[in-house]
Each structure stands twice: as C-alpha cells, then as structure tokens.
Write a structure and sequence with these properties.
The structure is a single chain. The chain is α/β, with parallel strands linked by helices. The strands form three sheets. The chain has an eight-stranded parallel beta sheet with strand order 8-7-6-5-2-1-10-9. Strands 11-12-13-18-15-16-17-14 form an eight-stranded antiparallel beta sheet. Strands 3-4 form a two-stranded antiparallel ribbon. It is globular.
Length: 468
C-alpha cells in the first residue's frame, strides 16, 4: 500500500493547543496564566479549539494545508500526553462539537487535521489505572499495565514510579500493556473513533517503545479501513526504515534531517560534502515510494526554537527554511516560528503565540509564505528525486537538484565565511541547452554558458533556480 498522495504535497503547521490562541475564555482553568507569560511545565494559558478555529484564515493566508495538533484529549496537564480519557476532548479546550466545528472549518479551507496519539502510556487519571490504585490486586484492570508488585505505590520517589513501568520512569505516565487483548482493543477503538469523527490521520507518540510491529499494523488497518487517505506518522528520532512501509507508517518525524541542517548551518560542524553524504544516506534508507512522505521539521514542542538556536540571525533562519522546503519530505512550520518566536528547551519552546503584529518578524513570515508558494508551484519540489552535486568553489558551496518530468530545480548555498565564486557543471541535469535559468524567489536570471553555471554568493546566501 502506497502512502496517501496528499502527504507529498502537504505543508504542515504544528500547534500546541494551550499556546496558540484563546478563543473562549469561559473554558479557561482557574488561575490561568496571563497570555504570553513565561511558560511552565504545569500552568495553562488558555489556548483552545475555538482559538484555532478563529485563526484558520491566518493559516490559509500563510499557505499551510495540514495541521498537526498536540494531544487534545482529557488530561491533567497543558501538554496532555497523560490522557485520562482518550474518547473525550479536554474541557479546557472545548467540546466535541467545538472540535467538529474546527474540522469543518479546516476542511472547508482545504486544510487537513492530524491528531497526536499517545498509545504507549496513559495518565494516572485513566480509568484502568485509577481502578488499580483503588482496588489493588482485586482490580480487574491489573493486566492493563506492567505492575511488578502490590500495593501499587501511589507516590513514588522524586517523581519516579516504584513498582510499575512508566515512560522514562515518570510515575504520572504509566505504560500500557499493549500485548493484552483488552488494552489493544481499546487503543484500536480510539484510533478508529477519531478517524470516524473526520481527522485525516495520526502522529503516533514514541511508537518504538511499543516494538510490536504487528500492533502498529493493526492500527494501520483500522485507520485506513475508516479512511484510506488517512496518514500515519511516527515519532522516531533516528533513521529507521523498518518502521516505514505498507505495514507500518507512511513517514517519520524527520529529526535526523533536522540535526544535519543544524550541524551544517548553526553549529557549523558539518561541511557541505558531509551534509550531502548524510542526507543522501537518510534519503536512500527508505523505499522509494516513502522518501517524500516524512514530516520534515526545524522545531517542535520537544526542541528549542530555530530562532533561538540561530541567535536570531536572519540569514541562518532563512537558509534553514529554504533548505527544508527544497528537500524531499513534507515541510512543517512549528507555530510561531514563521514570525520569529523564540524559546529554549521545553517548556520555553512552548511559549504563547504573539498576536500583536507589530512584534512579528514580518519579513520572515513573508519569506516563508514565498517558500510555501514556491513549493506549491514546483512539482519537482514535491515529487522529484534528489541528487547532490559535488561541492563547488573552495568546497564551501552546497548544491543539490530536484528533478521530475515537469522540471528541474537547483538550490546552491554558500556555507563559507566569505563571498564564494563558484562554477557548477549543469549539463548533466538537463540544462545543457539552456542559456539562463530563473531564481524562483527573486525572478532574477543567471546565465549558463557551455553547460556551466557561474555565480557569486555572500556567506549563507543561496540561489533557488528553476528552468521553466
């Protein structure tokens, strides 16, 4: 089974629901933080589903056509990775009808919605774990978790679980026993239920901590039976081809590509040739049909923000985004990155969106809009193959080509400390008969003579060229 065709064409936008927009203050929890206060691991700031719905036109204007939402189910935290009820929208986000209204509004604008599924562990408020706490060995739910001994330790030590398995040992995140048929049936019910409500797929949290690929095959079956066009994306941080294919996921969150991009342009520890070697190996590791369906990212709720990592250097941020949008895979924008929102490690990377436009990096947002338009207009950026060219000049110029039957696109970037004059042989990429090519972002032309492309680039400067 091939991945859904729409994923190759998608531009994702990730939203951490508590921090995007507060559309309905009536569902705010007690002692809600002021909007924009320094984020903490425990406090809420009032973001909700109505707030997302109210800003769908903002997302349409940006150009995105897929939203990835961090968990929305009933839970006791602002991140909601500790669900107490997987079949209910968290009251602090709204109601099921609010969610259905959001889906309708998104779909009316051609925007798909992917939810975050946490099937490895629950919260302590989940009914089966509560029954274990209440009834101990007499509980009929003893098989739902991995309990080593009774009585179940309700408090643990330093936040760690003592006598039951939990995610990273955290007592608030008890690990499901997914080998149990009853647990399995419940999670499959959850996977199917929300697809039947109208979602367009799942991003699955830490799936490699449930190494039973047969379980994930069952998840795929119930999801695609409900909607053959639904996508399954796995949060796996390494190159892991065993997890991608017809029986498992359509793609992974592409953290390896993110790391290579940061080493190239932020840490400056990776040469252009080293970057080419790494990314080509990442690309070649997967079946051809699935090379364009990974979720490519520069930031997420689990990482420092790109503006902070780049010390707010606009050249670096723009180059990183240009590379992200030009490489194979579905590019994503982490909410607020398009306006230059900053943030360090979790929880600081989960700051509230700044809706005061006077505080935006408007030039950056316009640039990202232009990348989105470019990606939409060039078939080869969405569906073309990938080929790196030998590093040019003094080895400081990175260049790669995306090619399809519809055209050829070339990106060249100067990773050196000074101005670089370089020449690329483009006769082998189908441009031998061309006299000039066009910069996709500026409209300026660059001449070609005898199959050679000569150009000069400032440090961190780049060309985005197409042939027709």
């Amino acid at each position: 089974m091939a991945p859904p065709g729409w994923v190759r064409d998608a531009i994702f936008y990730q939203i951490f629901p508590d921090r995007f927009a507060n559309g309905d203050p009536s569902n705010d929890p007690p002692q809600v933080q002021p909007w924009g206060a320094p984020p903490t691991t425990r406090d809420f700031q009032g973001g909700d589903l109505q707030g997302i719905h109210d800003h769908l036109d903002y997302l349409s204007d940006l150009g995105v056509d897929a939203i990835y939402l961090n968990p929305i189910f009933q839970a006791g935290s602002n991140h909601r990775y500790n669900a107490s009820d997987y079949l209910r929208v968290d009251d602090r986000l709204g109601s099921l009808e609010d969610f259905r209204r959001l889906l309708r509004g998104a779909h009316d604008r051609g925007i798909r919605v992917v939810l975050d599924g946490v099937f490895n562990h629950s919260g302590r408020g989940f009914f089966a774990f509560q029954d274990l706490l209440d009834h101990g060995e007499a509980s009929p739910c003893g098989h739902w978790y991995h309990v080593r001994s009774f009585p179940l330790d309700a408090f643990g030590e330093n936040g760690k679980a003592r006598n039951y398995e939990a995610w990273w040992g955290m007592r608030n995140l008890p690990k499901f026993n997914t080998e149990d048929p009853e647990v399995r049936a419940y999670l499959l019910k959850v996977a199917r239920y929300w697809v039947e409500q109208g979602i367009d797929g799942w991003r699955l949290d830490v799936p490699n901590e449930i190494p039973d690929l047969a379980f994930w095959g069952e998840v795929r079956d119930v999801v695609t039976n409900a909607n053959p066009e639904a996508v399954l994306l796995g949060e796996i941080w390494s190159v892991s081809p065993a997890w991608v294919g017809p029986g498992v996921f359509d793609g992974l969150m592409n953290y390896p590509l993110r790391q290579s991009l940061l080493e190239l342009a932020v840490e400056r520890t990776l040469s252009p040739q080293g970057f080419a070697d790494q990314v080509q190996a990442q690309y070649d590791a997967y079946p051809e049909a699935f090379r364009g369906t990974h979720y490519n990212l520069l930031g997420s709720h689990d990482t420092p923000r790109v503006a902070t990592l780049a010390a707010r250097d606009g050249r670096t941020v723009r180059l990183l985004n240009a590379l992200l949008f030009a490489l194979p895979g579905a590019p994503s924008v982490y909410y607020g990155d398009e306006i230059g929102l900053e943030g360090g490690k979790d929880p600081d990377c989960r700051r509230a969106f700044e809706w005061d436009r006077s505080r935006w990096d408007a030039d950056l947002r316009d640039f990202i809009k232009s990348l989105i338009r470019l990606r939409r207009s060039r078939v080869e950026l969405r569906r073309g193959d990938l080929r790196f060219l030998p590093a040019a000049g003094d080895g400081s110029v990175l260049a790669f080509v995306r090619n399809s039957g519809a055209g050829t696109f070339l990106l060249a970037a100067n990773m050196g400390e000074g101005v670089s004059s370089a020449q690329l042989d483009v006769s082998g990429i189908g441009w031998a008969g061309h006299r000039e090519v066009v910069d996709s972002l500026t409209g300026r032309t660059t001449p070609i003579a005898d199959g050679k492309l000569d150009f000069e680039l400032a440090p961190l400067g780049f060309l985005a060229l197409h042939d027709s």
